[in-house]
Design goal:
Distance between the termini: 84 Å
Strand content: over 45%
Largest sheet: 5 strands, antiparallel
Helix content: under 10%
Number of helices: 1
Structural class: mainly beta
Radius of gyration: 27 Å
Number of strands: 38
Amino acid sequence: MKKLQLFLILIISLLSLTFLTFSCDTTEPTNKNLQIMLEDASCTEAWLTLSTNNIPLPTNINLLVNEKNMNGIKINTTDTVIYVDSLQPNQTYKIYAMCENQLGISNSIQVTTMDTTDHDFDWQSYTFDVLTSSSTLYDIAIIDENNIWIVGEIYITNSPGTTDQHIYNAVHWDGTKWELKRVPSIICGNDYPVYSTIFAIYAFNENDIFFSDGGEIIHFDGKQYLQDCAINSLLTGRINRIWGSKSNDLYVVGNSGSIIHYNGITWKKIETHTEYNFTNIYGIVNSTTGKMEIYSSAVDFFTNDAKIYKIKSNYEIEIINITIGFIYSFWTQNGIDFYLCGDKLYRKNAVDPTEIKLNTSSPVIGIVGNNYNDIYVIGADQFFSHFNGTNWYLYPKTLLPTLTEYTIVAATSQVIVVGGTSNSKVEIIIGNK
């Protein structure tokens, strides 16, 4: 009789163990059913991916941060991005997940948040007298603090009532002074240079710089400007921005749905199936996969609709809807969290965009960031603000007191450049840390 009882107990135990292995209710403190992985972290937030295996879905999960139980999370898919906020800068946290009944426990990870950055810079300002109605700045490339290019359309006043016979389409900073430049382009099919408005610039180094006058690509190799007309037949609208990971991996975006890629030999048009105008493009390295991810913003000026397009390695397009209307530009560090410039500044963090309250009622025109703790935005009415990871600081209008609107911004971890045109002047400020 005792042997039979022992046998039945053994059978029941084995059946119970089998059932628990295929549910969230497992007493095994292993990581087979739940896996948690860090995607990214800012000063006060973290993005995690929670993966489930052999767990009936949906199910409820509790997230523990330094043993403090956060709100329960309902999991509907095998891989879920979890957003954690209310963390403190420059702190290390132990995070793990468990099923709501506390029986299925994930691996634990350590998450160290970023420290804040400084709002303070040493500022220098520069002014060029120009013909107001025509002069505009369009783009910036910072090679280093002693090598900065700004492009656009600049008419210099030589004497009252007259303008220079040719436009300047660039200014270059050498560490001590700005020098007006004329970047030559050749109208495809002709052999003589002209000096047109330069709308876009991207620089890999001082001897590898790409410009665009909207219809062609001009490459500066440190000695001469070389025209590339091969892209011309692929364009359906003006080129607005250039970005690349290297010279043989270059993208240009423009109006009427234009995205074109250069592999160092030939240009290839990427089918976007849209007539929207692409206004910005850049790539990030995914911290988890180590692979490049490329994003571009597109707008319809008639309907004020806007989208973010993700360009995949096989030239396929993934559309991210943002539902806030027109945007001028955007910034992202991880492809999950997006800052969007429009009539206001918005943030889309895996859900619908929410407004970031800033001390301005003017449109936010440009944004650039080095990391979550170093983001700059500019706009009309001399609006210029910096986010250091925990708070936004509004720079005083006295930096450029006569400028009414900033139109361009670029930054590295050591230098910030902002500029615009107004009141018969081109004005530029450089901030050094």
